[in-house]
Amino acid sequence: MHRFANPTRFFRISNAILPVAAAGFAVLTVLGLYYGLIASPADYQQGDTVRIMYIHVPAAYMAVMIYAVIAGASASVLIWKHPLAEITARAAAPVGLAFTFLCLATGSLWGKPMWGTWWVWDARLTSVLILFFLYIGYMTLANAFDEPGRASKPAAILALVGVVNLPIIKFSVDWWNTLHQPAALIRLDGPTIAPEMLTPLFLMMGSFTCFFILVLGLRMRSEYAAARLRNAMSRGVTTPDGVPNGPVGREPAA
Amino acid sequence: MIRAMRAVFMRDLRLVFRQGADLALALAFFLIAASLFPLGVGPSPETLAIVASGVVWVLSLLSVMLSLDRLFQSDYDDGALELMAMTATPMALLVLAKASAHWVTTGLPLTLLAPVIAMMLNLPADGLLALVLGLLLGTPAMSLIGAIGAALVLGARRASLLTALLVLPLYIPVLIFGVSAVDAAVAGLPWRPYMLILAAISMASIPLAPWAAGAAVRSAFQ
After folding, report:
1. How is chain A split into domains, by residue range?
2. CB-CB neighbours of A64 under 10 Å
3. ipTM score of complex
4. How does pLDDT run across A228-248, given as a tens digit for each residue?
5. For residue A43, which phi and psi values (nearest 5 degrees)?
6. Which of B163, B219, B221, B222 is the best mutation test for A, with the most CBs of A within 10 A?
7. Closest residue of A to B151, CA-based?
8. What is the domain class of A19-39+50-178+193-234 according to CATH?
9. What is the pLDDT of residues B33-58, one digit of tens each?
10. Mutate to test the interface with A, among B65, B158, B166, B175 (most CBs of A within 10 A)
């Protein structure tokens, strides 16, 4: 597992993955938008507003999945002190925050015509809002320390504490019978959505996942570069602009 | 280990009682903030009766939160916490002792003061028992979960503000079930299930929260 911490290998692997993720994102988004906006029927009750689902549901799935990624990475920060894990968690957090916001915003836009209100304090909405706060808390705590590296353990512990919220989000619609509809996708007796609507839904989920991998890869590379620059600066090798201060050691292949 | 826990527990109690101001501050905040509500939402008894349960619960949440910095921060500043972290006793047990002392000096007094404030806010009498029992079962969870937040921010910039950001989202479940219990009792519905959930949250916090908070305290000394 620690072999992936080697910077050269990390950059080689990410160089291989990033184009695939970018291509997958482009293709799946185009297909997903075509199926979502043109080739799928409008709902018999909701009309065209049902198409909000093709953004809302994948965004919700990403919000939860990215938090799980952060929690998994945080666990490996605490257990194995894996050098890439902290970078992964830090790089993923703003993306997760953005998807959580997208999920809440599209849900609100969907709620207004369907439920007649922008927001209700139902269990699902509240637990996703808590997820939003957890992302903010995680990001704030991860940047709250002056000493570099000092934040990694507290932030990881916070991320793991927040995991209790994930099952609450998933099962909130089963435990409390409120306005948000119950699970329709992941259930024992199979999805309860029409197949024509499932196609764009899965395409958009794939597209969002590719987007996440792409952005995560790019952010990890820049975090990595920033960490190296910080190191170089603290050793007095470069100025803050990255200009070498006199003789420099050999740069590792990157 | 038990002796070390008892020593830490008694020490924290003595510190609070000898200073006095710490204990009084949380209660004074509770009282003053509660007296703002009749001025803010209007003094009509019907309005107050509707918001009373929520106001009392939210204010006790905030009072507990405001007193959290006393849990670790002063010991962190004067080095006592580092000495505790160096002893053979697991930090989680010492955190449990400190959180218990915090509950005795914050959660318990707040629970005792709550019915008085609830009556000032015109909470129907049917809800009083649910309020007091709910606070009694819910405040231990608040002290324990708060200990995680207070331990995480040790050494951080603007620590007390950060504690609020970290801890308040985690308090939401306690708040929801606490207020639901009072509302159910006022409406004449069974409120025992909410008590059981509050007790379950506190019971689950007793082993889990000190574990996380202990790890956070240790990470502050590396």
Report:
1. 19-39+50-178+193-234
2. 20
3. 0.84
4. 888 888 787 766 666 666 554
5. -70, 145
6. B219
7. A154
8. mainly alpha
9. 999 988 888 888 888 888 899 999 99
10. B166
